[in-house]
Each structure stands twice: as C-alpha cells, then as structure tokens.
C-alpha cells in the first residue's frame, strides 16, 4: 500500500489535470491537428487545426498529416513529430504536469529528454509506449517509429541509454548510442502445430504429450541500419539547429545536420490546401 501511494504522488492520469498546460507547440509545417477532449473524457474528441505557437493541454492529442511536422517543448524535454504521426500524453508528473508517459499510436518521433534528478533514479522517469513496446529513458536523445500495419516498433538511440521492453513477453534489452532494436508483438510460450508434430515424430511415440515450447524470438540489439538513419534524418528536419539534437554522438550516426532534410519529393503541407485551378 505504501508503494502505491508513493507512485500516485509522482504520476497521475491526464484527466486529473484537465485544462492545464503540459507544454507548447513551438513550430509546425503543413497541417497539424489537435484532437480536443470533450467533457474531460477520452471518448469524444474534435479536431482543431493549429499553428505554432500553441499551448498544449495535458488532454490534447497531437496529429500530423502527410508532409507535415511539429515540434513540441515540455519543461523536461523536446519532441519532434514526423509526418503521419499521432501521439498523446498518457500520464504526467504531479504538481509539475511534465509528461511521464507518451502514447505513440502511429508514426515517427525523435525526443530529447533530460533531467538531472531522473539520471539518479533506477527506474525510467519518462516512457514512450506503442502497442508492441515500452521505451524507458532517464535522459537521452532517441528515436521511435511505430507501424501499426506491421505491428513493429523500431527504436534507435542517438545518445545515452534506453531500456526497451516487449509487450506481452516482458523481454527487456538496453539500447546504447548508435544501436537500434525492432520489437514485434509476439505472445510467449507459443508453439506451432508443426513444431509439436515434429517433436512427436522425433520421439517416435504415437500420442506423446509435448509440453509447450517458448519459441519467442529474442530481441536483437544491432547497429542502426542505413534505412533507419534516413528515416531519422527526415524526421529531424525541425531540430537540425537544436543543440540537444546535434551532439557529437548524434552527428556520428546521422552525419552533419545539413543532411537532415525531408524527402526531395515531399510537397510542402501548406501548399496541399491550395486549389489547383489550372
């Protein structure tokens, strides 16, 4: 009981802090929407197109459209959203309203989270959640991409250290600077009918009882792939002049910030709303 009370003292639901500011959208390109909660619930929302600067409430959901980007400043960090991305604040730190958990429904984000106090803690003080992974940090520059069609989360660390946990299996790995991990949602202790049949045949005992075998692939930490480097560069277009994102460690992986640009064939979001009258 004492433990539960202590946890509640540090984080609590966003709707306990409804209508309170949690941060500020400081830069946008193209169409960026805020999904506003009605009646302090998550059941009914309406979309509102915004431009920076915009005060972000704890209950707001942020969505970028195709060819659009956004940069958000919190008291404890900065986050930049690539195109076709949706994030929501899930929990905040009590009394400060600093986000402690973000939900990434889909898309790409790069985040710099920093806190001297958080660095001293054993548990992560800031987390990003997808349906397949929980990414926990104490102070670092990292990237997360989630594709709901493939149910795969790709996490890469540019500076510092990140702990990644797979939803369902509870596998955990530590991802250091210059490394990435791909996390799919897989249930543990599953064994296919074919594997069971093969084991029975090997035992040469008709009707043999075969115990379930854990065939869950182990999470593999590896150097950041070239394809993901390109993704991170393109997502980082709004922060290529930001000091926290241009550390020697980040530049070593991504190259010089001048290369952090959107795809050449991307149409600026602001032009997509102009009617073609020719």
Topology:
Blueprint: H1 2-10, E1 11-13, E2 21-29, E3 32-37, E4 45-50, E5 54-57, E6 61-64, E7 69-74, E8 77-81, E9 85-93, E10 99-113, H2 116-119, E11 126-129, E12 133-137, E13 140-147, E14 152-159, E15 161-166, E16 172-176, E17 179-184, H3 193-203, E18 221-223, H4 226-235, H5 248-254
Helical region count? 5
The span between the termini is 69 Å
- Number of individual domains: 1
Radius of gyration: 21 Å
- In terms of structural class, how would the helical and strand content be classed? mainly beta
What series of H and E elements makes up the topology? HEEEEEEEEEEHEEEEEEEHEHH
Task: Report the sheet-strand fraction.
Answer: 35-45%
Which percent bin holds the helix content? Answer: 10-25%
CATH fold node name: Jelly Rolls
What's the total number of strands?
18
Oligomeric nature of the chains: single chain
Shape from CA axes? Answer: globular
Average per-residue pLDDT, rounded, comes to 82
Q: Sheet bearing the most strands, described?
A: 18 strands, mixed
CATH arch. level architecture: Sandwich
Overall CATH class: Mainly Beta
Parts with pLDDT < 50 across at least 5 consecutive residues: 1-10, 270-278
């Amino acid at each position: 009981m004492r433990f539960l009370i202590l946890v509640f003292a540090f984080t609590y639901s966003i709707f306990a802090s409804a209508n309170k500011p949690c941060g500020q959208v400081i830069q946008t390109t193209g169409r960026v929407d805020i999904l506003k909660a009605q009646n302090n619930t998550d059941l009914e929302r309406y979309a509102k197109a915004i431009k920076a600067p915009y005060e972000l409430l704890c209950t707001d959901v942020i969505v970028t459209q195709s060819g659009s980007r956004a940069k958000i400043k919190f008291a404890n960090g900065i986050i930049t959203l690539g195109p076709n991305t949706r994030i929501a604040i899930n929990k905040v730190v009590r009394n400060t309203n600093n986000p402690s958990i973000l939900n990434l429904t889909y898309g790409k984000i790069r985040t710099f989270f920093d806190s001297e106090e958080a660095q001293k803690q054993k548990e992560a003080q800031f987390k990003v959640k997808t349906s397949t992974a929980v990414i926990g940090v104490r102070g670092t520059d990292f990237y997360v991409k989630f594709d709901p069609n493939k149910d795969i989360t790709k996490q890469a660390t540019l500076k510092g250290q990140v702990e990644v946990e797979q939803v369902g299996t509870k596998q955990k790995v530590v991802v250091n600077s210059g490394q990435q991990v791909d996390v799919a949602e897989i249930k543990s202790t599953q064994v296919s009918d074919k594997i069971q049949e093969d084991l029975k045949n090997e035992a040469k005992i008709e009707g043999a009882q075969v115990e379930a075998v854990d065939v869950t692939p182990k999470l593999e930490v590896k150097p950041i792939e070239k394809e993901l480097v390109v993704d991170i560069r393109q997502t980082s277009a709004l922060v290529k002049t930001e000091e926290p994102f241009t550390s020697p460690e980040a530049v070593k992986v991504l190259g010089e910030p001048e290369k952090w640009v959107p795809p050449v064939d991307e149409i600026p979001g602001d032009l997509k709303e102009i009617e073609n009258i020719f």
